[in-house]
Amino acid sequence: MFETEKEVLNWYERHSRSLTKSFVSEFPWPEIKNYSLDPAFVPVLIYMRDVESFTDMYYREVLRTPTGKDPVLRRFMERWVVEEADHAEVLNRFLREAGVAVDDKWQAKAKAAIPRSYTIRN
Fold first, then answer.
1. Model's pTM, two decimal places?
2. What total number of domains does the chain contain?
């Protein structure tokens, strides 16, 4: 289907994002509270939210490598990192709408929980 990385990127960029602001605003957020959420699933959603949020750190790390210097991969990653941040925000909103107490500083606290040794080594 694709012969080069550039063809893949062109295909990717021709497609609109699925998770648009319009889509998110039209989602029936108030209805979420009408459905029960298994408490055992909450940590999974929090983990998923945090991983999506941490993509920016991964992106910065990859930029320091030969892969991050490839213009085609870099362009893909520039769009990808924005999309992942949006996913984190949608997951966080879902948690709030489901009645899960979410700290307003969740992102800063999650990043602060990353071991200091990670940032020292890298």
1. 0.80
2. 1
